[in-house]
């Protein structure tokens, strides 16, 4: 009996040791799978980034020439945008002061993503040395950069039909941004420029510095002081974003576009456009119209 018990104990001990070895091997296999998945994901991201970089033409700094009028088209926290000559073409060059290399590449890649007459065309970038810059087509009227906010205060467009056409072109540009899965995040009258081609006028939605992928947008918590600052200086930011209850969404872009329409209505008193603006600036994001609904409304006028 004692001998049988010894054999039984030995078998149990061997079985226990074997089980531990199996568990150990499974853990190792799990870690190996995790490591393989990590490197596979990293490789795919790096490959995607390399493909984006390849698509963006690197422009030599020496190929940019100053124009006689030395026009600065705009400036901000990012740096400044200047009119220059590139291989005989008048272009807009956006120079970055403190923006990171990745952020510059990201903005350039997003501009390059779109192909719409209402969105800017990019010639290329230079990220070999600072200041980094992006070279884009220059838009304006008779050599001057005119924003929609400036145009609204003038008699450039006097009829309802003209303003409807301008806003319809803007809406179609925004539609492509949303269709591609992005949010502009900074729509306002100062970020839409009017371009004149022959006898026609065409709006261009610019400044992609704050653009995000819709699936990656996150809630940003602001202090009470910061919220007050946003409400005072950044009124085009949707209230739910400034209050930190929602991340930026397509609906927050619609809110901002509604304020653009409201600006036009303030100076030109167009009732049909005012009614559309009301559907855009609803305090509840889910109740705002989509960009496709707005396009349908504008096309029906």
TrEMBL record:
Keywords: ATP-binding, Kinase, Nucleotide-binding, Serine/threonine-protein kinase, Transferase. Coiled coil: none annotated. GO terms for molecular function: ATP binding; protein serine/threonine kinase activity. It holds the Pfam family Pkinase. PROSITE patterns: PROTEIN_KINASE_ATP, PROTEIN_KINASE_DOM, PROTEIN_KINASE_ST. Belongs to the protein kinase superfamily. PANTHER family: PALMITOYLTRANSFERASE, PROTEIN KINASE DOMAIN CONTAINING PROTEIN. This is Probable serine threonine- kinase gdt4. It comes from Paramuricea clavata (Red gorgonian).
């Amino acid at each position: 009996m004692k001998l049988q018990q010894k054999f039984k104990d030995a078998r149990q001990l061997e079985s226990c040791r074997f089980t531990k070895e199996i568990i150990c091997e499974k853990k190792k296999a799990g870690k190996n799978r995790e490591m393989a998945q990590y490197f596979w994901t990293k490789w795919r991201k790096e490959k995607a980034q390399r493909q984006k970089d390849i698509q963006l033409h690197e422009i030599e700094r020496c190929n940019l020439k100053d124009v006689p009028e030395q026009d600065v088209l705009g400036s901000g926290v990012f740096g400044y945008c200047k009119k220059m000559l590139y291989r005989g073409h008048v272009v807009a060059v956006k120079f970055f002061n403190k923006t990171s290399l990745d952020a510059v590449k990201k903005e350039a890649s997003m501009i390059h993503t779109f192909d719409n007459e209402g969105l800017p065309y990019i010639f290329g970038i230079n990220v070999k040395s600072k200041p980094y810059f992006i070279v884009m087509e220059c838009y304006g009227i008779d050599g001057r950069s005119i924003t929609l906010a400036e145009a609204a205060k003038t008699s450039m467009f006097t009829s309802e039909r003209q303003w409807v056409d301008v806003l319809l072109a803007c809406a179609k540009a925004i539609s492509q941004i949303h269709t591609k899965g992005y949010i502009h995040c900074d729509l306002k009258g100062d970020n839409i420029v009017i371009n004149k081609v022959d006898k026609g006028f065409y709006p261009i939605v610019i400044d992609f510095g704050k653009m995000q992928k819709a699936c990656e947008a996150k809630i940003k918590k602001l202090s009470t002081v910061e919220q007050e600052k946003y409400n005072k200086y950044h009124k085009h930011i949707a209230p739910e974003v400034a209050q930190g209850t929602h991340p930026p969404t397509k609906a927050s872009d619609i809110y901002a576009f509604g304020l653009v329409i409201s600006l036009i209505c303030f100076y030109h008193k167009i009732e049909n456009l005012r009614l559309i603006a009301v559907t855009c600036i609803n305090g509840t994001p889910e109740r705002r119209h989509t960009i496709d609904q707005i396009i349908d409304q504008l096309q029906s006028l």
